[in-house]
Design a protein that fits this description.
Elements (H helix, E strand, L loop, with lengths): L13 E2 L2 E2 L2 E7 L6 H16 L4 E9 L5 H4 L5 E5 L11 H14 L3 E5 L3 H8 L6 E6 L8 H10 L5 E4 L2 H11 L6 E3 L6 H14 L1
Parallel strand pairs: 3-4, 3-6, 4-5, 6-7, 7-8, 8-9
Antiparallel strand pairs: 1-2
Helix pairs in contact: 3-4
Length: about 210
């Protein structure tokens, strides 16, 4: 597993003397055609299918929109916080804080894995007080914003347990500005699903 959640020091819950599966929640803004969205969906399915006895994954999408929507609609453990896809996601969408807090209270996850801003900011604030580890996954330089965003993010970085960057260049650019408290930071390059590449190559050979 490219990101081995199993090694993270979470408080494992016991049920009748046996360890239950770790509940991991992946959070993203939407499921539009993009690298972040593709990675999140693939990671969700990889955990669900490859680690069925160890991990219980959940996928939380803030806005019900995007080219991958039909691909995941109706799948088990997939949740949409908002049905309004046109509404821009902002840190002032206070209704989402309440919806996410209610959902997380019901799911009782062990790990929250945020993908992109302001998903991570909303996710951190909504989960304060819960016994959960938080991972912020920074995918690109577009994460960098103005002074107001920097101040807000440096504040919530005290509640983030791990920062993951997709490259050293992104880490060197973003981390000094946004991460004021978290010492656990690492580089994890993006991955691809081999089967998808093989399918594309077969399709290309046929069209030729």
């Amino acid at each position: 597993l490219c990101l081995d959640y199993r090694k993270m020091p979470v408080n494992l819950k016991l049920m009748r003397g046996r360890i239950v599966r770790r509940k991991i929640v992946l959070l993203a803004e939407s499921v539009g055609f993009g690298g972040i969205e593709r990675l999140v969906i693939d990671l969700f399915r990889y955990m669900r299918e490859g680690y069925i006895n160890e991990i219980e994954p959940y996928l939380v999408i803030f806005r019900r929109r995007g080219g991958f929507l039909k691909e995941i609609e109706g799948e088990k453990n997939v949740y949409f916080l908002s049905s309004c896809g046109k509404k821009k996601l902002k840190t002032t969408n206070f209704d989402l804080y309440l919806k996410l807090r209610k959902l997380l209270t019901e799911l009782e996850p062990d790990i929250l894995h945020f993908h992109g801003y302001p998903v991570d900011f909303i996710g951190v604030i909504s989960s304060l007080g819960l016994k959960v580890r938080r991972i912020a996954h920074i995918h690109n330089f577009h994460f960098i914003g103005g002074k107001k965003r920097i101040r807000k993010y440096r504040f919530v970085s005290r509640y983030i347990n791990s920062f993951i960057y997709v490259s050293k260049a992104v880490m060197n650019s973003v981390d000094p500005l946004y991460n004021a408290f978290c010492s656990d930071k690492r580089v994890l390059y993006n991955f691809v699903v081999p089967e998808r590449i093989e399918a594309l190559l077969r399709k290309e050979s046929v069209t030729r």
